[in-house]
Structure formats: structure tokens, C-alpha cells
Amino acid sequence: MRTIGRGLQLFALVLLPLAIAMQLFGALGRIGVDQMLIMLVCGIAAFLLGRLLEGYAGQ
């Protein structure tokens, strides 16, 4: 469980800057603010879920 939690946290920490960089360099084409907001919320949710899993594994 702890490894899965750490993995989710790392996934979220890599996903968000990667999405921003891809948007800036045009690799994704032009996506709207709504899609960037969805990516932000998914990244935050993945990080929090990973943190909860890691916390419960330590107990």
C-alpha cells in the first residue's frame, strides 16, 4: 500500500508540470482552460489519494 501511495504522489508531481510544459510548447495542440483545470483537479486528487494510502499503510 505504501508503494502504491508513493507512486500516486510521484505520478501527480510529474504529471502536472509535464502537462504545463506540453501546453507551452504546443505538443498537445491548443487545449482550453477547462481541460487544464480538469488535469489540475485530477493531479490534486491523485496526490491526495496517494498521501492517504501512504498514511494508512504506516498505521
Structure write-up:
- There is one protein chain.
- With 59 residues, the chain is mainly α.
- The protein has one domain.
- Helix content is 85%, strand content 0%.
- The chain is built from 2 helices and no strands.
- The protein has helices spanning 2-25, 33-58.
- Helix 1 (2-25) packs antiparallel against helix 2.
Overall pLDDT metric: 84
Strand content: under 5%
* Largest β-sheet summary: none
Percent of residues in helices:
over 70%
Number of distinct beta strands? 0
Q: Please state the CA-atom Rg, rounded to the nearest Å.
A: 14 Å
Fold topology:
Blueprint (H helix, E strand, L loop, with lengths): L1 H24 L7 H26 L1
Helix pairs in contact: 1-2
Observed structural traits:
mainly alpha, 59 residues
Quickly describe the structure:
This protein has 59 residues and is mainly alpha-helical. Helices cover 85% and strands 0% of the residues.
